[in-house]
Write a sequence for this structure.
């Protein structure tokens, strides 16, 4: 396999073995990610970090991963700074940039853009989010965080809370969880924002247990992990519906205490807004900042895999 | 003291001893800052240079300081590229970014933002200007420049010229000068743009001599250093007042020669506009470009202090 | 000669000897540019990559060149992030930035801006395009690509196709080709977009053979190299003229096959639009992506020349 074939486009590229290998490498990367150990694994290498829509968090996380391994990062943010403004195709853009970098991270608003880029590029392309499509490294770091927080992913019961219809993150996460044994998924959302049939069918086909749970408190009592996502008011036809419904999916200290689950592990892809109250931050299981930080070792592990090196 | 407590938020953190230590370290940093010597002091370290409002000069100066010490710099410019657009708090933003970098430089338009960021971050935060608040590294480099140009700060007579009311720079500078012995401050401004009472009270309390001087030529005769700042027309109610008054605070060669002080040291925080004429540039005491360049060794010295290393 | 005098502003700075030296150095840089060999030639050095108008391609190419040599790159994109918004002169800006970097690459929309910047800076300035002025490194990489593709530049017959009036690239290229022996230039453009008299006069004065060729197929039959550029519809008074005329300057597979020249070398400064069809990409002589990639070793060679080092 040539290095240009090592693109990371979809979670469906990963099976259990690949995940275990990446997670083991990520564990080794942790002290380097924290700056406690240094690495020259990618010394002399250049990453083109191409963000055609804003995402400071994802951009900085990829950048930090590449830099911590000793590499150098060239950043382009915003559609307006691209020759694509002048009408160049994405294919031509990445083919040219293939001559300026050893790998490309692409964030782009169009579905399928990452796969198109990977086909045109002569260096590996990592999908940093392709609009309504996938954001595979987010799903990888989510599962990696469950593994680090709970010590396992097998047999985990996870409640997916909030907007399960439009939330790209929960789709990829649900798919990736099917690689593990005896996982149970609780779906907690307004009916209008329910998990798409396509994802449900995938879970069924791979034999993963799931059930819809109407009450957030009830789900909190049942789950090992709460994975909270944001509900956007604009998803509802009737604004008064929005306010009322969104209020029933807010994770705060009072809700968690009423479920008697101060020990529960809480994840969130961030940024959060009103959906996850700051009074939860001091709970021991409030793991969302650790989750964000896990993005660095996971992305380092992917780069190690791509460039066939150790951290 | 943990490294996260090493944030640089205000000039009031510095006493005479701290200043002398930083200035001595900055002197050692000068050849490295000029690229004559190389340093690997911060090899493997990452700086997040977060500029939520434009300031090319300050941003590049911090970036150069970190790079000259062997570190790597991740830059974010402009509010529009931040998850804060989506409603994330500054606290969440810096807490997440704490996992991607070893230190954060923050330029932000809101008063008090740097202190809030430092409280939330788990890595040191350096204030790169918090709106009408402080810009401590500018004041440090200003005093450092006086020391380098005149060989001392004690017993210096400095005229602060221009907009003393809204000019953040002169407030921080005046405060920092109180750490030195027998400093004398001349205040040269339109009455409507006079130094705020609060700063005057601070000078009185710390026993620093000051006086208002009505004539720029007169002040130029008396001072060792002219510190020139810009008067903005929009500060005046009456535009015709503006033009007339601003004209009396322009530093040019004719003014300096009429004061018979071609030897005077001239500083300016830059950028300049009409307030400081290019015909002054060739005077031996025209030190404002050297002053700008002194930002690099001063910021290197702060990073050495934060990371407890030598240049 | 001091290093600050080593600015690269115009193709007219280069004679045959200088070109041969740079091309030989670029050849040595190729494996480093591709990441097959690493270099620490510019370790510790900082490049300020100042792009006051968007040009992702040129910016990343300069950045990659400097990074591949071990240096570090500080990027500023867009006029809005500059103190120039506040009214600072270009001269003051580059004089200040001279203290933050070891070299400056400047892309700026104003004719003559690069020369003005070089006069004010105390470090070398490389012209990355000054509006309607020059883009010397593009011309260097164009000629370098001819040399690599054909093994020589002497005795080459090159057809310049498209907008020869406003296309900055073809003006610089034509001038640079006069350094070589027995070059023949075919000019293929709509009459309204013909090569300016000034450039024609320069060719005559330097004894370079040129002729206007009305038919693209005819020129393709005659030439060793087709150098294709874009015709912009807005250059024509009458939009219906535009569509008709532009159609006669499109390079596609059918045109090349009708000229029986599937072996011809095809160059394009990129980005392309409708002017060069993707069905040409698989021809062995479709060299435009290699041409883009040659920008890295050529710019590395210029940096080696400026800093007097080996790759």
């Amino acid at each position: 396999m040539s290095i240009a074939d090592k693109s990371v486009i979809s979670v469906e590229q990963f099976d259990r073995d690949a995940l275990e290998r990446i997670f083991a490498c990520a564990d080794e990367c942790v002290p380097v990610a924290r700056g406690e150990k240094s690495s020259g694994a990618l010394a002399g290498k250049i990453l083109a970090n191409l963000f055609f829509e804003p995402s400071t968090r994802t951009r900085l996380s990829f950048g930090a991963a590449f830099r911590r391994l000793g590499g150098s990062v060239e950043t382009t943010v915003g559609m307006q700074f691209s020759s694509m403004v002048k009408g160049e195709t994405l294919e031509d853009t990445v083919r040219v940039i293939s001559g300026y970098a050893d790998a490309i991270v692409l964030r782009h608003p169009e579905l399928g853009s990452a796969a198109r880029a990977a086909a045109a590029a002569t260096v590996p392309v990592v999908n940093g989010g392709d609009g309504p499509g996938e954001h595979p490294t987010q799903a990888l770091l989510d599962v990696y965080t469950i593994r680090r927080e709970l010590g396992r992913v097998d047999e985990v019961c996870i409640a997916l809370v909030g907007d399960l219809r439009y939330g790209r993150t929960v789709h990829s996460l649900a798919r990736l969880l099917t690689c593990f044994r005896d996982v149970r998924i609780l779906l907690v959302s307004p009916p209008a924002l329910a998990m798409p049939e396509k994802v449900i069918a995938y879970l069924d086909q791979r034999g993963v247990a799931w059930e819809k749970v109407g009450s957030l408190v009830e789900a909190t009592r049942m789950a090992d992990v709460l994975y909270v996502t944001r509900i956007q008011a604009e998803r509802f036809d009737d604004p008064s519906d929005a306010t009322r419904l969104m209020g029933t999916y807010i994770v705060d200290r009072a809700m968690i205490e009423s479920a008697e689950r101060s020990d529960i592990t809480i994840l969130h892809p961030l940024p959060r807004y009103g959906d996850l109250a700051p009074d939860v931050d001091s709970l021991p299981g409030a793991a969302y900042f650790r989750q964000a930080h896990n993005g660095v070792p996971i992305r380092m592990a992917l780069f190690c895999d791509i460039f066939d090196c150790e951290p």
In short: The domain at 3-133+295-307 of chain B is CATH 3.40.50.1370 (Rossmann fold). The first helix of chain B runs from residue 16 to 33.
